[in-house]
Specification:
This protein is an alpha+beta fold. It is built from 15 helices and 14 strands. The chain is globular and about 90 Å long.
């Protein structure tokens, strides 16, 4: 009876879901090379004006204009279309202060938006649409606050399209025809990024989780069926061979047994990308103290001995933006130039780039964990299992500090920027339940990119064959049922 139920579950769910799984595996191959287009920081930096030291105010006069509730937010200075602004961001609240206290900002009107569009692409604008509902390239519900949104079409080889908010003149999306094509055959179907569903985030998450849960049930029952078929054949004929003679049944059975476990882990890990790691897995005990110390930011309480105008002058004609930051009690300036990012130590009145010492790092860690808990610090010059990136965007070297406590806390702190990553047992569970299983972000594989590529293509092809044979068998199953009904 149990076997009959399991066979029925696999047959019914396989008939319904195989085509969805085939799509997921094929589009997964595309996602190895192309993702969903989005505006990145490099593009935003490129269109900014370079800062000039002329008319820049003393920073204390700017501080007096910032509400007390926003002093723990981020403060950034940049210039666009000739207007120099201090951007203060605290959570979802933003305050913009003109660098010249006597000057008011330009009104966000059609003329200002048109100038913004010209900065982003020099080609001729051939059409502008006024959008009052989301479309495929801006399918996110939070963008409804920007309606109407202007969509610019450019007459160039790449067929650029630009989306600009009518409320803030912020650029929301910037795409080329190539990006749109690959998104249609990759990210959009794989992530179920269809506007009608994706604009409601909660509904989108629930839909994908339910489909994944049904897929897990289908795959587990399929693994059971596949093993059971082999065992039955062995009991009868004492040979471990597939009992199926028909081509599509044989392919589905053999590839299902070989790749079924990988199909299962991919469905599960894909679901976990949208679901929080259960709190009881590697329970954390001191997260609040980590946030309190390492994420604390209040520029008014820090002594910036180095004037930010000195930094702008030293990099004359190169700086695109300056951000006020800190590493605990060390004040910092993060500056972005046309080609680089540099963090300046502002604790002295001389210009010097940041270079944290072991003692700087340990003093902060002691503040979180106290002096009595054993700690091990080393300078990491290559990626490890939990500080790793396929694209290489995570910087090296970094200080790695291992804490001998229940959570097994580990900190990765960049001596050149003060940026950090905190990993504990709960995070490690989350890493393996999503990135480790889904993207195969495993150090050995990423150390040899060709091995990672070969393994991914092999497993994705195997999953696609399992799904394709399931589609054929499902179609034939439905056809048989239809013929019986007719007769």
């Amino acid at each position: 009876m149990i076997n009959k139920i399991i066979y029925s579950i696999h047959r019914i769910l396989g008939t319904l879901l195989s085509i969805l799984f085939l799509m997921w595996f094929v589009t997964g191959m595309v996602l190895m090379y192309h993702t969903f287009p989005k505006v990145n920081n490099k593009q935003k930096t490129k269109v900014l004006d370079t800062l000039s030291v002329a008319h820049l105010p003393d920073f204390n006069s700017v501080l007096h204009q910032i509400p007390d509730s926003m002093l723990e937010g981020t403060i950034r200075l940049d210039q666009f279309l000739g207007e120099t602004k201090f951007h203060v961001q605290a959570g979802k609240t933003e305050c913009i202060i003109p660098a010249d206290s006597l000057k008011t900002f330009s009104e966000v009107n059609w003329n200002y938006i048109k100038q913004t569009a010209e900065k982003w692409c020099s080609a001729q604008v051939i059409r502008v649409d006024t959008l009052r509902k989301l479309d495929q390239w801006i399918p996110f519900g939070q963008l409804k606050k920007d309606f109407p949104i202007y969509k610019f079409y450019y007459d160039d080889e790449e067929n650029h399209q630009l989306y600009i908010s009518s409320k803030s003149a912020d650029v929301l999306q910037f795409t080329t025809s190539d990006q749109r094509f690959w998104a249609w055959v990759g990210a959009i179907p794989h992530w179920v990024y269809f506007t009608i569903l994706r604009q409601d985030k909660d509904l989108w998450v629930k839909s994908v989780v339910i489909l994944s849960a049904l897929g897990i049930l289908m795959t587990v029952s399929g693994i059971w069926v596949g093993i059971d078929a082999y065992l039955q054949r062995y009991r009868r004929q004492k040979t471990l061979a597939s009992p199926y003679k028909k081509k599509w049944y044989w392919w589905h059975h053999v590839t299902g047994v070989l790749f079924g476990i990988f199909v299962l882990t991919w469905i599960f890990s894909g679901m976990m990308s949208l679901v929080d790691t259960p709190s009881w897995l590697g329970r954390t005990r001191n997260e609040s103290s980590v946030d309190r110390v390492l994420s604390h930011r209040n520029v008014s309480s820090l002594n910036y001995k180095l004037d930010y105008r000195t930094v702008v002058k030293a990099y004359s004609g190169k700086i695109k933006s300056v951000e006020w930051d800190n590493f605990r009690n060390i004040p910092l300036y993060n500056i972005v130039t046309e080609t680089d990012k540099v963090t300046i130590d502002a604790s002295a009145d001389t210009l010097r780039v940041l270079q944290l010492t072991e003692q700087d790092v340990l003093s902060v860690i002691h503040e979180i964990h106290g002096n009595h808990i054993p700690k091990n610090i080393s300078l990491l010059t290559e990626y490890d299992a939990y500080y790793i990136s396929k694209s290489g965007h995570l910087p090296l070297p970094v200080y790695r500090v291992n804490i001998d406590n229940e959570d097994k806390d580990t900190y990765y702190i960049n001596p050149a920027t003060g940026k950090y990553r905190h990993v504990n047992n709960h995070d490690r569970w989350g890493f393996w339940m999503y990135q480790g299983l889904h993207s195969l972000k495993i150090k050995f594989l990423l150390d040899y990119p060709w091995v990672w590529t070969l393994v991914m293509w092999t497993l994705l092809t195997g999953g696609a064959v399992v799904s394709l044979s399931g589609v054929v068998l499902g179609y034939r199953y439905v056809a048989r049922k239809c013929r019986k009904l007719k007769s």
